[in-house]
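Entries read chain and fold; for instance:
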Amino acid sequence: MESSSHNLRNYLLITGGYWAFTLTDGAIRMLVVLYFHLLGYSPFEVAMLFLFYEFFGIVTNLVGGWLGACIGLNRIMHMGMGLQVLALLMLTVPEAWLSVAYVMVAQALSGIAKDLNKMSAKAGVKTLVPQDSDIHSDSRLFKWVAMLTGSKNALKGVGFFLGALLLEFAGFRNALLILASGLLFVLLLTAIMLPHGLGKTKNKPTFTQIFSNTSAINGLSAARFFLFGARDVWFVVGLPVFLFSVLGWRFSEIGAFLALWVIVYGIVQSCAPMILRGHHPDGKTARWWAFALVLVPAAIALALQQELEPNRVIIIGLFVFGVVFAINSAVHSYLIVAWSGYDKVSMNVGFYYMANAGGRLTGTVLSGWIYQTQGLVGCLWWSAAFVFVAGLLSLRLPAGMKKTHSRRVGT
């Protein structure tokens, strides 16, 4: 009972730290997209501001899992928070200093920070669940991963709204100072309360072990690449610029809408265990939900091509996309943790989120270029194609692997 209570306390601390970081992550993205579009940057130039953000996320996840196994996941989480505070403060300089190269460097630090924080939080949950293979441990792991992931995304939605709201009423620099101060407070609080060495392995892994030699992990990571590329290819740049420049929405309206979308998306992720009726996801679950998602961006694109009322199409279509995408993401997030052995969970999660970051990078760059050359409809067709590839890659994922390999996968 005492051990269970202690694990729950640490889980709540990790989740709380992840929440605080996520608020700043969502806010800074909305601040950068809207502020630099207002300064006259083209959609492709805005997308390029996030190039290093996503690229260094790939590197960070690849190295971060190995580093977490060596020095502890809590230290990785606090390193991420510290780098995010620095990235926020870097953008408070005078406007004349905010060149494309300078902002890209600041975003690179923010990307490193985000993925250090995400990897440490997701892997940390695995270390807090008892090392049993019974159905109760499986259910607890699914619920804890779904709650952490879903609540994080709901808070990221709040961050979108917070960023747009602060931009409109406090200004760009004051908004950044407010966010940096709040995150610094949370960093100090969790550094005091979390135990040291969380997730640190007894035997130091070699650097070459960061690459997974398990087909299930590799296949899931490849599917994740295309799944998140499919989201960001229309969501990161194309959608907010379309809402502002074509539909004439105000900054606060864009922020509120995208915030509400991500909040609903996060709630659906948190409720995934209930939606799936207690069924523990496997490879078959991943592929069926992927193919279901293909239909959504294709339907939105067709509706816009038929010149149906765009506000209604975007609002309804985006929320349907969010619900189905949330189930896909929740299934993936559970599988990578469930299929990883306790002694290699941080490295497997790091490798998996390296693929996730690669998908985001590809989607982000394509979002600006495709929107500029093909419009939002083009972005949506690319999204459908990416999801279809994710479904094809999921065909090779094993069904029921969790039940027989939960202790051995990745070892």
